[in-house]
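Re-run with default settings, no changes from the original entry. Doing this only to confirm the output is reproducible before filing.
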Amino acid sequence: MVPPSTVAAAFADPRSWRRYWPDLELRVYTDRGDKGLRWTVTGALIGTMEVWLEPVLDGTVLHYFLRATPAGPRGVPRELSPRELRREFDRRARAAKDVALGLKEILEDGREPGVPPRTVE
């Protein structure tokens, strides 16, 4: 449980994007501050992506939206079979969970729910 500003800071540095989404090129089109970011996506996919940070009690719910299609040569959308699309969707969903849970572990640093965040003195 960390405040939205802490989670937003984890996404603010463009160098972190390559670590989270190594095959995507992202360009911010809306910076919503502590509410998250919206990007245009190129690279392996073509479309848009959003991380929306919702304050809940003393923490944050991270919502992740990816609206994109696989890219082929020269950045043109690539046709995939329904099975291939499902496989790609599942792969991206698992990767998004990995990003969210990895950040949760780092940012919470062992904090239990209901326990105030540690302060640096």
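The CA atoms of residues 27 and 94 lie 23 Å apart. The chain has three helices and four strands.
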